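Notes from hallway chat w/ T.B., transcribed later so I don't forget. T.B. wanted the structure written out for a chain they're using in a teaching module, and asked if we could keep both sequence and structure tokens in one place. Agreed to drop them here.
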Amino acid sequence: MKKILSLILAISIFISCSAFAAVDISETTKRADALKALGLFKGTENGYDLESNATRVQIAVTLTRLLGKEEKALYQNNGHPFGDVPDWASPYIGWLYENYMINGIDNYNFGTDYIAEPKQFVAMILRTLGYSDTNALDFYYESAVDFAVNIGLIPYSDIAIYKSDVLTRKMMVDLQYKALSMPIKNSRRTLAQKLCNDVIISEAIAESVGIAVKPNPADIFADVPELYGNLYAKRKGSSNRVVCSLDSAIEEYAIRIYCSVDNGAYTEIPRDYGSSMYFEYGELSWRGAAGYVSDFTVHGVPNNGSTYKFILLKTSSTGNIYDIFGKSKEATLR
């Protein structure tokens, strides 16, 4: 009788666990569908293959897509020293290697088919969100999972899973999906909103799959102190040029200007003359070796009755945003 009861109990536990696993995988499958629709996850020849282990090359490709650099990686096709990388993955590894974002297992092998550790992928996601483990600025690589739990990227209940030695493709999808709703460091703008603003993913698709919600422009940089006074915006005649001016000049290094159209999401205006909208510095004044500027001309602002809002930010880098030192007050142009 005891043997029969034990058998029944064992079968019940097996069925319960199997049902739970099916539900768990089913939820992750929906997330994978959303990521695929956004062009951020493409699966394998076996479909999503969620129960398989994730390899180092798979997380490297995922990182490139989350950074919004897949198109650039494929176009540039940078070289690298690793002899074990397949042709299809070479552009991704080349771009990451060229930009000092990955290392191999030795000087000549990337470890393409090695199973990835969860902390490797967690650290990559944290860096994508603007956090740095260089000189332990924000987190230590070895304790990346603990830091991810502290900021809400990983549920506390999953800490043991992500501290294991093996990263599954299911874990990779779940973490990538969650990362899209996480705010970038020093901003209330989420990673999904950044990718939408940078035209890496479709805002319409992101909203349809429930990942991106249009933010309130007033909240975008709410956590950044207003250190640079008022910003004023004035159109030059009836042209598509707008002059944005600060109360007083600031050092010209690492200045960024963002624009919101009709209370939409703020998008960074590049200093790229090939863009439809771009900005350039006004006349510089020099104090020793440093140049200072207070006026900026924004080109490509249509005179079509829309309302434009501008914010100036001062950051620590002219490339990727690492730290935001401060912002101006918002300037409105109607």
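Follow-up for T.B.: Residues 2-23 have pLDDT under 50 and may be disordered. Might be a good example for the class.
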